[in-house]
Every structure is written in C-alpha cells, then in structure tokens.
Design goal:
Number of helices of chain A: 1
Number of strands of chain A: 8
Distance between the termini of chain A: 22 Å
Largest interface: A-B, 40 and 40 residues
Order of helices and strands of chain A: EHEEEEEEE
Structural class of chain A: mainly beta
Largest sheet of chain A: 7 strands, antiparallel
Low-confidence stretches of chain A: none
Radius of gyration of chain A: 14 Å
Oligomer: homodimer
C-alpha cells in the first residue's frame, strides 16, 4: 500500500486566503487544519473544547481578557475551553490548528468572520 | 495572568534519552509528547486510537506490514487505530506525538521497550 506524509509547507502553498482553515488530516474525531492569519480577529470562546495552536511560521499573539501570549514558529499553545480569546497577527502567520471535528473558527460567537467548516485541502 | 507558549526545541533540549516520550501539554483528554528516537522499535498497534506523529527534526520511517512512509521535518502522519507499525530512525529523530492520555508507546504489545507513561517535562 502507498502511505504518504503530510507536509504543512506544501499544504500552505496551495492557497493564499487568510482566516479560512483547511483540514489536512484527522485523528479519531479530531481535525488538523492549516490556516493563514493576518490582522485582528473577533473575541470568541469554545464552550465545549480546548483548542490547540501550533505556529509553523510567524508570530501569533493570542489576547485574553487578562493578558496575552506570543506563539512563535516551533511553539504551541492550548487555549482552554470556555476562555475568551482573540488571535492577532502583525505579519502573516501560518499555523496548524487542532480541535474536534465540527468546531467553528468563531466558536460560539458566529458572525461574518465565521469560515465554512470541514473544508479539506 | 501570565500565559506561556511551549517551545518544542526548548523541551527537547532538556533531555537526551531516546524512546521515552515526555508530555508537554494536554488538550481535553489528549496529550502532546516530545520524544527522541534512533534505531529500531518493536512492532505494535493501538487497538483503540489513531496516533499522530509530527516530525520536528530528522527523517522518521514508519514501517507497516505492507509498506512504509518517511516523515520529515515539518511533516505529519496519522497511524490509524489497529494498524501494526514500527518506527525506525536511521539518525536521531525529534518528534511530537499526539494521542489520548493513557496510551503506551508499545501499544497492546508491552515488553521491555515500554516507557513509563504520563511523564511531564
């Protein structure tokens, strides 16, 4: 049988649009999504799940109501469930998101920044 | 509040031993573990879960009964549950494992290569 690894750089080279996560793999009921971000997002939270950010390239800032964290290339951060957060990227950031299948990028807030879910690349 | 990102390189610099996964973070009931590998492992499978390999540095080969895959730096591969596999590293490989809390490195096979579980770094 043919087995094939998944390259984050290769997948990220297939699209230019920002704030639209693309699924590249699944593990049980969790999905791995690559996404490009630049600028400010909306405050939101995920009431039912933690959310993992792994930065492939760039400097991601995640704002919280009582602080912030910078996540750089080769670093990760897990946002606990129910905690309001807002991603911000001064320059374009390329990252890997890990979360259960069905989680929306805007969490429980919705609105015009909500991306179509479960889009594979 | 103080929020802190997790650097894979920093964590991997804290130990030299091979084949002993160390937990660096949790997302819901899943754990992120860094590990160094070199040489050959034992054939095993995980009957209840998929297992994710993300290579931080090096060239990991995962053997299957009917093929193999090379996973290089910046690449990932998900081994499906119930599928026999055997990691192999010609040179030292540094990688991130993602799997549910409680999963042993030797899966359902056990034996002397079984590492202590749930060791944090």
């Amino acid at each position: 049988m043919i087995y094939k690894s998944i390259s984050f750089t290769q997948k990220l080279g297939l699209f230019a649009e920002q704030w639209k996560p693309k699924v590249v793999a699944e593990m049980n009921d969790y999905q791995f999504k690559v996404v490009k971000l630049k600028g400010d997002f909306v405050w939101h939270e995920h009431q039912d799940t933690d959310e993992t950010f792994i930065v492939i390239d760039g400097d991601l800032r995640i704002d919280f109501r009582d602080g912030a964290v910078h996540v750089l290339s080769g670093e990760m951060f897990v946002v606990p469930k129910g905690v309001e957060h807002k991603p911000y990227a001064e320059g374009e950031v390329k990252l890997l998101l890990i979360e259960p299948r069905g989680v929306l990028n805007t969490g429980d807030v919705g609105g015009e920044r909500t991306a179509e879910n479960d889009v594979w690349i």
